[in-house]
User: Fold this.
Amino acid sequence: MTLLLLIAIPLCGGFLAWLLGRFHADAPRWISLAALGVGFILALDLGLEHWGAAGLANDNLWLLEYSHAWIPRFGISFHLALDGLNLLMVVLTFLIGILAVGCSWKEISTRVGFFHFNLMWVLAGVVGVFLAIDLFLFYFFWELMLVPMYFLIGIWGHEKRIRAALKFFIFTQASGLLLLLAIVALAFSHQSTSGVLSYNYMELLGTPLSEAAGMWMMLGFFIAFAVKLPVVPLHTWLPDAHTEAPTAGSVILAALMLKTGAYGLIRFVVPLFPDAAMAFAPIAMTLGVIGILYGAILAFAQTDLKRLVAYTSVSHLGFVLLGVFAWNELALQGVVMQMICHSFSTGALFVLVGALYERTHTRDLSRLSGLWAVAPKMGAMAMFFAMASLGLPGLGNFLAEILVLAGAYPVSIPLTALATVGLIFATIYSVRLVSRAFHGVNEGSWEFSDLSLREAAVLGVMVVGLIWLGLYPQPVLDAAAPTLSHLLSVMQR
Amino acid sequence: MLNYLALLPTLPLVGFLILTAFGKSLSKRSVVAIGVGSMALAAMLTIGIAIHFLSAPPPGHVFEQHLWTWFQVGDLAPGFSLYLDALSLAMILVITLVGFLIHLYSAEFMRDDDAYARFFAYMNLFVSLMLILVLADNLLLLYLGWEGVGMCSFLLIGFWYKKPENSKAAQKAFIVTRVGDTAMAIGLFLLITQLGTLDIQELGVRASEKWPVGSGMAVAAAALLLGGAVGKSAQLPLQTWLPDAMAGPSPVSALIHAATMVTAGVYLIARTHALFALAPVVLTAVMLIGLLTQLTAGISAVHQRDIKRILAYSTISQLGYMFFALGVSSNGAAINHLMTHACFKATWFLAAGAVIIAVNHEHDIFKMGGLGKKLPVLFWTMFFAGCGPFFSKDGILAEVWFSDTGGPFLWLLGLFGVFVTSIYLFRLLFTVFLGPLKNDVHWKPGLAITIPLVILATGSVVGAIVEYPRLLGYHPYATGTEAAHASPYLHAAIGKIAVGVALAGIYVAYRLFVRHKHYEAGEVVVPHITLRMRRLFAAGWYFDRAYHAAFVVPFQATSRFLRSELIDRGYDAVVALVQTGHRQIRRSQTGRLRWYAAGIAVGAVFCLGAVLL
Assistant:
């Protein structure tokens, strides 16, 4: 029941925000904040409750389950389940949601109610995606995320918002269709061997498939998740969408939506189609490394700050792809860490760029220079998150990437070496970001106020998060461990 | 006392945190109290730890302190664990004592800077991370310190960020050293995969059990670690960042780019010597890299005009000597040179910083002259400090002569380096301090500058007499005492020869730059070599130019080429195709009934035909 609440709270909160937004502009903000706060506490409480049990060694993977018949005729049920892995993601979703509301407090002034409605519904969709364990329900939430995000970009975005929103929508929608086809095909394949039509993930695990069928279905899942992740060459929607979206939209896109792709790869692609996935692994890992290098080089090439940050996502999530298909404990733990740490580091960079844009109305690196003298707190924050981004030890991203690489090393030494070169490229774009914008002479004669208390608080949470994950990540690793060892054992069978 | 070991990196870290959080609102006096005070406490604590360690040695002469397990995945569980033995004791003594003196110097040197608190914050953070680097018991924690000091180096080189060239130099230093660090990271992955641990002592044990001497894995592991060491210690071919790093304030050059951070590579090789011992090929490479770096950088140093660049090349060259010693497995000699060099080079950088202020921010030594009378303290401290390292270098050369991989020929090349060293050092000293006075000097160093200089110079001189590492119980020499006992006269003679060569170098420098007064001609630096060669030497053998052409230009070109996102043009083509198709088909929607009827008829015939045939 709690699981249902986790989805219902943002849904209802969103409605309420929209309704009350007619009366007072601040109402939606406070309502959203309150709803997300309750959700966060609820999720965190679940985590604390199962803390000791997170290492539970019994056969039942799930800490908590909720199931209700939905369309029994087709074997579809409203089936949610919680384990360590998606618990982490749900807690992260609510936390990022709170920060997203916080960072857009002043930025959004038109149709505030509807904005928060969309924001909350995206979050609800994301939570649903993480919790759904019925494949049809998963697809339902997968689509639910899209529409409000389309509005977020299309209504509150920057100059080229309509095109960016449309591009985002078509890319995800088209690939989502492949996902749906693959899901249905898988369910029918399962029916033909077992006689039962079911969309239940646990039942579909281990469905015997012919080599060709397995490969096609795996690709259907893979492409849908690859678009979200994103994997080069399916990434071109991302720079546009991230750049044109309002700050909160960029934060949610980068910090959460991309992670649904990563989550899908871990949860579905490899466990459901182990043979096909392993046959495909060399290609996928290569694509991952290409993403790491390509994203980093393009990040370096950008003059638009927001686009720069967007491309760093392409680079960082290449590590996720590399790690998932290396498929061992080290690599998968690294992937989970990367999913969380990237949310903080890149989310924070988007918040910073947004704050800078609110003050200067430009994101053009050639117009911004010497800003350290104007806003040292902002500079220090930019420095911190740039360092996180380039993988400075002591911050979470370092451990994430090191674990992925250490896990990938026994699988492929050349790919690991190339991916490690990505760390040099990350250094290049990160120091360029800091040096260009904050060092040098303040040629634009910029003068503006430094970070406000609200902005500093939003960023401060992320700073603390990254330091904590960098120095003592054990709680996160422990939470994910049972799920990962279960998934790894599926593979061995 | 040993139990307070963890406090050592904590003290400067707390200093950093306070200065970062409240730096803006603190008075300069309180900034000094926190920034320098934390270092004073750390230095005192280190002395206490050293006394305890030497008077009541812990079992096995090793003290370990486990703070917490960083993370555990599978069998891999690196900890925040500190490891104190004679080697790390030597390092923490250098870091905290030299570090404290440089902090004290900075209190006066940086007094007029607006960003006083920011300076001490960065410096404190640096010391903290450097201490973690040398105290780490596993390679991952060492890597944390390693990368952390790299970041501090970036921050401090670019401390005066308003000048674009400083920012450039900072970026260059960071990126070039990260190239080496990447090799090192791959080395870590290799070690994790092959040996299943990163604990340094355990690595040595497992490696020697699993890998025979000279095996491919051992060579690969050692070579990859060497990559990191080469980058950090500015050895060939990754030495190019250090001369530019002089853009930072002089205390930064003294602390980071002379005394401590750049010696991290030397420390790493000494620390993981068990791995290197399994890879003799790599040790030979270490020796050759050291030798080549020492010679090329030394020759470049003779051709510099900027006082700090001379010292930068000198540092690269002296680090080359340390690698030379490591390459013949004489870690004791390497660490001995590391310690005396730290005192010597810190003195010279600090004095150079004072000179630069005294002559109104002039860097060109040929525009200085006769300062000896105005600034005697600087002259004499530099003079005495400069003599110290010759003795520790002689120790290295003797080791090279007697070692299996070294020998008289390599010794001779090393000896030539000694000659070059004394030329460039005394060229600087004579040009700046002797001869007629060329500059107005309105500034005298105060106590906070003088005291550190005197102490550091004393440290350098004492280092010529006693071997610090031996004092601390660190004496892994390659040949050392046995060879000395076997042929004591030869051993002594070799030492004498080196001192003689050094004196000859000083004499040559005197003849060239005082008697013949080549410095007045400015351009004439060493006669009898062509202008083209002189340019080659002065420009650091054109490494910068080559790297620019080989890496920077292609990288920028690639990024420019890719910027337009060709992949996206593919998707645009799909869009265009759909739009064209849509336009074409729309033309069939004419509204004329006759056309539709015809269309239906043709379609029906077509379908029937398809079915029937």
Notes: Residues 161-194 of chain A form the longest helix (34 residues). The two ends of chain A are 33 Å apart (CA to CA). The mean pLDDT of chain A is 89. Chain A touches chain B through 51 residues (CB under 8 Å).
